[in-house]
Structure prediction request, 352 residues.
Amino acid sequence: MKQVELAVIPGDGIGKEVVPEALRVLDAIAEIHGGLKFNSIHHPWSSEYYVQHGEMMPKDGLSKIAQSDAVFLGAVGDPSLVADHISLGGLLLKIRREFEQVINIRPAKQLKGIISPLSNPRDFDIVIVRENSEGEYSSIGGRVHSGEDEIVIQNAVFTKKGVSRVIEYAFELARQRSGRVTSATKSNGIVHSMPFWDEVFKEVAKNYDDVQTNSEHIDALSAFFITKPQTMDVVVASNLFGDILSDIGAAIMGSIGIAPAGNINLNGKYPSMFEPVHGSAPDIYGKGIANPIGQIWTAKMMLDHFGELEMGALLLEAIETSMQSGIKTADIGGSSSTSEVSDEIIAILRKN
Prediction:
């Protein structure tokens, strides 16, 4: 039996509610279908941990989880305890950067059993491939002077290596899907980094004659996610643009509470990390109404990452079946509790 070691970080708010539910589902599908066993090692790193220790994780925190097969993260952030830039920078972003998780994958598809806000969603199925290590979120810049003379500079850093690898990943993924890649750009307004992005996109495309390509400005592309999402398959984007598009993707699905994400390490030196798109939602924490689907779909992505594609497909099918049966939390039109949703998914898995 294959042993999989998970570094589990529930984090803040509803992360502490949805992560245990997703682990119950993972353990159930591993037991039912065999060949896999999860060894989950929990780490209490969070905003509460920061209040107690003055840091989001211990100084040797990364070394504690570096040998795990994957990091399974809930949510990070509680502004009532710690400023967001401290909580994110000291935990989520630290793991992404130090573990060289250079690509962020965020799917958005019309799921059975949930009503999209779109009047005619037309079975859209999009995967956003987001550059995850540089671009607009590079921490290079600064502030000088004060008052009306204050100057703030934020530098967006794009490297040939970083842009090439995320675009190549998108093309390889498109080959496994419908063979179409859309590039998000803004070269008519951002006159240095975006023309560079476009040049690398065209350069990489020469090696993929079998893949259809197009390039869209981010403002138009954001509108297309709403007016004609069915026309897109794989969308590759810079750090900021991918972040924005994935939230639109969650919105057209019906709730940010169901959207998953994977932070992918390509070189094998460190584990990849899987997390839902949603935040810690401290306003509903403790009420038992948080939607666990985002965390459970994230678990499906992790199964795919481990090569357990059949298990992953069965899990997504169970998610959709549970919603079709009416077992849904309030954010997607139901009245079920967090645990009732995961109970139903496990029951469906046991039947199949």
